Amino acid sequence: MEPIKKKKLKSEKDSPKKGGASELELKINELTEALQRERADAQNLARRAEQDKLRWASFYKAQVVKELLPTLDAAEKAVEHAEGKNLGKEAEGMVSVLNKLKKTLEGLGLEKIEAEGKKFNEDLHEAISIDQTDGEKDIVTKEMQAGYRLGDEVLRHSMVVVRR
Q: Does pTM surpass 0.85?
């Protein structure tokens, strides 16, 4: 004859075991920590994406400004040649266009690098000739081509003559 098995009541089956409550709490804590880590990872990813976006925007802005520097140089040369000559409204128009171009580029953060009369700085200047005259050494005596920077980045070094 088979032993009689005791039937569990429904309420006995559904009630947690004595240690089951602490197991559930541990599982809840574990899942909560995992969720917090995932949220932190998502926030870090969003922050890095925003930083990358700003870095790329700055890079492309610098590229566009670099492409405009020869146009700025040509406009400045044209205005220099027009000075002192009576060219009329055409010269006034050129000066106006040059001023608007400069103002726009300055609005983007473009700065002209000071050179003439300054101490030679290889981070900002490129020596293309040496001046052998008497005077203080390592001083820029003439700027051959203007240099520019955008923020901390040098877009183009000033081409200069340096006293040695």
A: no
